[in-house]
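Tokens for chain A. Residues wanted.
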């Protein structure tokens, strides 16, 4: 016996409600002929439209009371699927296909497919919120600065840890290298330090991106350290970042040196080219700053970038010139013929060698030339048979006034024309000769040229007293060398270059010098008095001070803050004639005094104002073993002083400008010479200190000179 079909818990209702729930309507009244006993709400007969939908009872029970009131639902048994063969999807004429019944019997928002993801999102949001709340106020998790882990620390603790572990690393001196030049950069002198607080400020913002926060569980968060410069902590004017780089660059930078030919005596050789280079200041600063937080190991060095400036003339070109021109030129003398009465002369190989010049060109060639002035000097009186030499115009000082002594043209062979004649025959085989063409020879400095220089009055003068006979002798010699020097407009005068070597061969004798802050003996001592006297003439003439160095401690016979020292090969006195007229130097020496006077065209009235002596320093007392060269010193206090040069208009006396000269004098130590101990325990001799000061940057050398040629700026005209 077959079982009746299971009770269907759904009812069929129309699908035109406003909230997708079918409204409950009274059941239809069947026709009278159909009013027979049997189940109600059966499916419509064939051809009748079914406009109802199946609705679960729990959905029906959730309908609003007002909507459900007064409705009657007729529920009947659901027919077997077999009763609806090939019926297909139920269709509503107004809305289209009807949805299938919810087999779970629950609203969509309570379905597992919706609840599980929503729950997961809620859990993650809660975890994110808790993580953000717990870490709030701390440095974000896994934060690392230059290898130092500070994640999870409070800002104060993180700053302390950075200062402890990175502060000394940043302050450590660094060995820097640029090609073959090595130096040391001192962050401490430059006022460079780790900005721990600034670094923490840049690192302690909590990331809000959930994925970023999640990644910190598995990887580090790198933060660049902040480096600061405290200008108030800079050690001195040479200690700043830029100053240290500039000092290092002075050793690195060099102009390109083209290949050329050097001649020693009459032997010529090729000088290899050297590429120019310039320290990349900006790149070097970045490289040093970037390496400050690296752990120094004491052995490695920091390579700084260098820009290369290639040469124009390569060695191959110099080799060609040597073989094709120079070696044949130095193989034999050149005869000069055609003088009156058959007179002849000879240009010896030595004169050719002394006058050859080599000039590089931008297209890579090395041009050979002959310098007429050097040729004339090397020949001496060799060409006197062809005429009389010319005499340059000179200046004569008498009674406080200066006048031009006229030039005298000569007759004979013009050195410039002779140089032009020699060039074409230099590579000819011997014997070789040129024909003399005697004629007028103009003076190098004519009367008209000398008068145009505007040297007509005294523009400054200064006198110092001489107290030491040995020093006085050296002052006499150097004064005689410089007397009559002529410095043209725009030229820079260098005392060391003008005088050249100052040794016994030049007439100088041993005298007292300051070496390493102590008195000692050296050949040429006392030249600093001449330098001081000349510096004051420069000062009161209103000329440009290019370089001067005061003594390391004060010497009472000189004006404080207005004096200079020199030392051959190390310390120079340099000044520039920045006027539009020439400057003629006149010196006057007596055993008790030295006077240096400048003549030219006066431009300014100059006043000198000295400040109070400040920052006094007391001398130390030193017991020095007298091993034969100990010189006792009574000691002089040190101090600082500023001297101001005031420029005033000649006509109105109105002030034009001021220039300050700041000088710091060390205290001269009190030195007591004690007897040398005998036997064991004898004190070892200390090495002799070098001269005080360091070598200045030299004035630029004039162009167009042979390698190794020394021609001083300024000339003697008497």
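Reply:
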């Amino acid at each position: 016996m077959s079982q009746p079909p299971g009770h269907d818990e759904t009812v069929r209702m129309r699908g035109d409600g406003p909230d997708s729930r079918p409204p409950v309507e009274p059941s239809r009244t069947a026709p009278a002929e159909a009013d027979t006993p049997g189940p109600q709400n059966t499916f419509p007969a064939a051809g009748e439209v079914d406009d109802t939908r199946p609705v679960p009872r729990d959905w029906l029970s959730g309908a609003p009371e007002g909507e459900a009131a007064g409705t009657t639902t007729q529920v009947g048994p659901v027919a077997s699927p077999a009763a609806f063969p090939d019926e297909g999807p139920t269709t509503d004429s107004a809305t289209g296909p009807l949805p299938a019944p919810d087999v779970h019997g629950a609203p969509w928002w309570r379905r597992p497919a919706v609840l599980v993801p929503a729950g997961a999102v809620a859990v993650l949001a809660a975890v994110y919120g808790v993580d953000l709340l717990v870490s709030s106020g701390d440095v974000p998790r896994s934060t690392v600065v230059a290898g130092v882990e500070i994640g999870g620390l409070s800002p104060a603790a993180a700053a302390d840890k950075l200062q402890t572990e990175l502060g000394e690393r940043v302050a450590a001196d660094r060995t820097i290298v640029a090609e073959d030049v090595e130096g040391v950069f001192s962050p401490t002198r430059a006022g460079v330090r780790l900005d721990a607080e600034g670094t923490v400020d840049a690192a302690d913002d909590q990331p809000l991106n959930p994925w970023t926060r999640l990644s910190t569980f598995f990887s580090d968060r790198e933060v660049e350290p902040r480096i600061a410069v405290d200008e108030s902590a800079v050690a001195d004017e040479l200690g700043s970042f830029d100053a240290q780089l500039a000092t290092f660059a002075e050793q690195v930078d060099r102009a390109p040196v083209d290949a050329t030919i050097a001649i020693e005596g009459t032997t010529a050789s090729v000088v290899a080219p050297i590429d120019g280079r310039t320290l990349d200041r900006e790149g070097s600063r970045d490289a040093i700053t970037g390496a400050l937080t690296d752990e120094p190991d004491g052995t490695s060095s920091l390579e700084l970038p260098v820009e290369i400036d290639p040469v124009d003339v390569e060695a191959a070109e110099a080799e060609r010139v040597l073989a094709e021109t120079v070696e044949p030129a130095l193989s034999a003398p050149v005869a000069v013929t055609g003088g009156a009465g058959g007179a002849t002369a000879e240009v010896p190989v030595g004169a050719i060698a002394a006058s050859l010049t080599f000039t590089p060109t931008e297209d890579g060639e090395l041009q050979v030339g002959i310098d007429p002035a050097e040729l004339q000097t090397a020949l001496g009186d060799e060409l006197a048979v062809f005429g009389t030499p010319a005499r340059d115009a000179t200046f004569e000082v008498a009674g406080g006034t200066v006048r031009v002594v006229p030039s005298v043209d000569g007759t004979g062979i013009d050195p410039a024309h002779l140089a032009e004649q020699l060039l074409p025959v230099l590579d000819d085989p011997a014997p070789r000769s040129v024909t003399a063409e005697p004629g007028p020879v103009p003076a190098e400095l004519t009367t008209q040229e000398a008068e145009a220089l505007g040297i007509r009055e005294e523009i400054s003068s200064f006198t110092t007293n001489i107290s030491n006979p040995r020093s006085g002798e050296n002052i006499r010699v150097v004064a005689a060398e410089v007397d009559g020097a002529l410095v043209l407009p725009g030229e820079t005068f260098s005392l060391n270059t003008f005088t050249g070597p100052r040794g016994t061969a030049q007439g100088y004798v041993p005298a007292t010098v300051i070496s390493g802050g102590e008195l000692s003996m050296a050949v040429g001592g006392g030249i600093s008095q001449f330098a001081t006297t000349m510096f004051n003439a420069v000062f009161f003439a209103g000329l440009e001070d290019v370089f001067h160095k005061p003594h390391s401690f004060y010497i009472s016979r000189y004006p404080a803050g207005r004096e200079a020292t020199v030392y051959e090969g190390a310390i120079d006195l340099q000044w520039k004639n920045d006027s539009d007229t020439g400057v003629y130097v006149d010196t006057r020496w007596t055993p008790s005094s030295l006077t240096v006077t400048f003549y030219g065209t006066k431009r300014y009235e100059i006043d000198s104002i000295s400040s109070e002596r400040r920052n006094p320093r007391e001398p130390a007392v030193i017991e020095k073993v007298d091993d034969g060269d100990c010189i006792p010193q009574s000691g002089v206090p040190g101090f600082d002083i500023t001297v101001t040069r005031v420029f005033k208009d000649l006509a109105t006396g109105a002030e034009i400008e001021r220039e300050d000269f700041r000088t710091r004098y060390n205290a001269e130590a009190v030195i007591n010479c004690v007897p040398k101990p005998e036997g064991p325990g004898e004190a070892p001799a200390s090495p002799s200190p070098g001269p005080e000061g360091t070598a200045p940057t030299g004035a630029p050398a004039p162009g167009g000179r042979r390698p190794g040629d020394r021609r001083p700026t300024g000339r003697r005209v008497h």
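Residues 455-716 form one domain. The chain is about 25% helix and 25% strand.
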